[in-house]
Amino acid sequence: MQRKLSRPSLRIRLVAALTTAGLIATTGTALADTDADRKVVQEALDQLTTSGGALGVQARVTDGHQRFTARSGKAELGSNRPVPENGRFRVGSITKTFVSTVLLQLEGEDRLDLDAPVVRYLPGLIDGRITVRQVLQHTSGLYNYTDALPLDPAEFEKIRYKHWTPQELLRISTGRPLDFDPGTRWSYSNTNYVVAGLLVERLTGKPYEKAVEQRILKPLRLHDTEVPGDDVGISGPHAHGYVSVAGKPVDITRLNPSVAWAAGEIISTTRDLDTFGAAVAGGRLLEPAQQKEISKTTAVSPEYGLGLQVQTLPCGTRVWGHGGGIPGYSSQLLTTPDTHKRLELSATTAPTGGDSNPAFVKLLTEVFC
Known about the structure:
This protein is α+β, with helices and mostly antiparallel strands. 30% of the residues lie in helices and 15% in strands. The protein contains eleven helices and ten strands. Helix 2 packs antiparallel against helix 11, helix 3 crosses helix 7 and helix 3 packs antiparallel against helix 10. The radius of gyration is 19 Å and the shape is globular.
């Protein structure tokens, strides 16, 4: 968790949480066929809210034999109201998996070539060497536009309600040189998914959020998931997120999520994310050829497919998913490729929070190992 609007606040969180605790590895023992212990899961959540920097946390666990939700902490400072068991929250970069899924669907319809340069579809937009695959896999070299934003809490307060166009966000990046030659390195950049959103719009002829709604939200009946655009609020039951400004907590729940756009603006619930994650891993949204592509890693990108993190825990469990962070909220979506074990989590950050916490490791170990 984090106490301030730091640079990774719109970036994936799972890698940071696991790497800090030394949990990620490429080898390990065989997967133990045991059910997750609700008591241990609850202990881990309680640790997150008592000493791990979270004000409130909710989780949904599936292990094939049982399904349950758990929660800990408060929904709002100054109140004893508990976190809603199926409350809505900002999912941050989990949005990227929705967007990459739409583009892979378009490839399956022969409307897109993953290995074609982006400029084939959007002439002059970015460096002509960058391919669609490199954008989706974060190997494009495009400068991460969020690195240039005023994300210190005091400064972000001044722009929290600003409307951003994707073109504005992209110009922040393209006004700087590439970080490296396309395809030679992996570096997480939110700019890639601004480009991905623009590709969706060019290929479908409609706003990217409409494509996400028609191709994913409606077919899966994700009624509690929305692409909010300029809507600054979170409708329905939800916990509040906070940042610290001059040593005092500031409620950051209301903000204009256009600053994240296709890189991280979606609002959802653990229930809807569970349905989505199971559908992605279970091949319900993609044709077989594209299903192989979404989880395909490379020597340059060994733990990231196309909008999907792909990692192996020391116990031998392979997990797919994505993490997300946006001011006030940190989230996780994780599933085994066979969907037998799954975890969705949302935590709201509190002013006294730190970054990665061993409680995450305890939770992930209990669910997946």
